[in-house]
Amino acid sequence: MRVEELREDDAAVRRMLVDLALDEQEHYDHPRESREELEARLRPEAGFTGENHVLVARDASGTALGLCWVVLFDPGNGLEGEVAELYVEPGARGRGIASRLVQAAMELLRRRHVTFASVWTRDDNPAALAAYRAAGFAPTRQTVLTWLPLDERDG
Ligand SMILES: CC(C)(COP(=O)(O)OP(=O)(O)OC[C@H]1O[C@@H](n2cnc3c(N)ncnc32)[C@H](O)[C@@H]1OP(=O)(O)O)[C@@H](O)C(=O)NCCC(=O)NCCS
């Protein structure tokens, strides 16, 4: 056996991706897609592009009070979104600005028919958690594992 990168279109590889998606979608309350829809959509290309949307909250004079940075990208298996950064100036906190920003981010995700969106924060950040939860983010039923480039020799 050898492992190599896909270099050109390969029907067997596409069929595996479609079988995977058909099997997986049975486990979630997601809108179902047919084999034909998945075959049309699941075509991995070597490169893909993404979008940055930095939403800025401003006061009446135009001064920036906070921001929410949203990333959109489609590697070839559906448009994904991530809330990459959320920040409100210390003097402007506690007035609902983060909640408004995250709401605006959700409007963008819905308008663009994003199929999966994620956000990271700390358990001890109640204001960020409340803003994300109010907008519809929830602890997921999917198991998410992460890897960080720590020094593995210490592990
Ligand atoms: C997290 C942060 C963006 C919140 O901004 P904010 O404008 O003060 O937040 P809001 O006023 O919109 O409050 C958001 C929610 O948190 C709640 N909340 C605010 N401060 C809180 C606190 N100290 N403890 C518990 N809940 C709090 C609010 O009641 C609100 O909940 P609701 O929507 O149910 O009413 C801001 O504190 C910040 O920039 N922190 C540093 C950067 C950061 O931690 N970013 C998030 C990393 S992912």
Q: Concise description?
A:
With 155 residues, this protein is α+β, with helices and mostly antiparallel strands.
Q: What is the highest CATH level, the class of the largest domain?
A: Alpha Beta
Proportion of residues in β-strands: 15-25%
- Tell me the structural class: alpha+beta
The total number of structural domains is 2
Query: What is the overall shape?
Result: elongated
For the largest sheet, list the strands in their spatial order: 1-2-3-4
* Proper CATH architecture of the largest domain: 3-Layer(aba) Sandwich
Quote the CATH topology of the largest domain: Aminopeptidase
- Count of helical stretches: 4
Question: How many strands, what sense, and barrel or not for the largest sheet?
Answer: 4 strands, mixed
CATH level-four homologous superfamily name of the largest domain: Gcn5-related N-acetyltransferase (GNAT)
pLDDT < 50 stretches: none
Heteromolecules bound: coenzyme A
Mean pLDDT, to the nearest integer, reads 93
Instruction: Give the number of DSSP strands.
Output: 4
N-to-C SSE string, H for helix and E for strand: HHEEEHEH
Which range best describes the helical content: under 10%, 10-25%, 25-40%, 40-55%, 55-70% or over 70%?
25-40%
Radius of gyration of CA atoms, rounded to a whole number: 19 Å
Distance between the termini: 30 Å
